[in-house]
Amino acid sequence: IRVADHFGGFDVSGHMTEERLRGLLARVPGGTTEIMTHPGRECAWLRRDLPWGYRDFDWAQELRALTSRQIKTQLRSAGIDLIRFQELADSSVAPDGSPAALTRQCEEST
User: Fold this and answer.
1) For 87, which of 10, 34, 83, 105 could close a Cys bridge (C-beta 3.0–4.6 Å)?
2) Contact of 14 with 52, CB cutoff 8 Å
3) pTM score, two decimals?
4) Whether 1 contacts 49, CB under 8 Å
5) E strands of 16-66, at which residues?
6) 14: which DSSP letter?
7) Per-residue model confidence as pLDDT tens digits over 42-64
């Protein structure tokens, strides 16, 4: 199982602004970090018919944040590379076969 070492954005799901993304990127630790976003355009069907809370998501705002020139500059300046999920290394798996990121996160919160 391939997983990122870190995860961010869950607490602002559907409401990732450029400012929030800049702050998150400024705190990205070493390794790989998955950032939860829902970029897109307005879709009445998603708002109306899906039961898991899309009613107040701001897809266009998240799209603007992710395509911002300032964000691209920040990524370049910080030496942060964007990768595809398929590029994650299998080293994200702990020796016992469990996702290392989840194991580490659970240990840190106890």
Assistant:
1) 83
2) no
3) 0.74
4) no
5) 33-35
6) T
7) 888 888 887 776 778 899 999 99
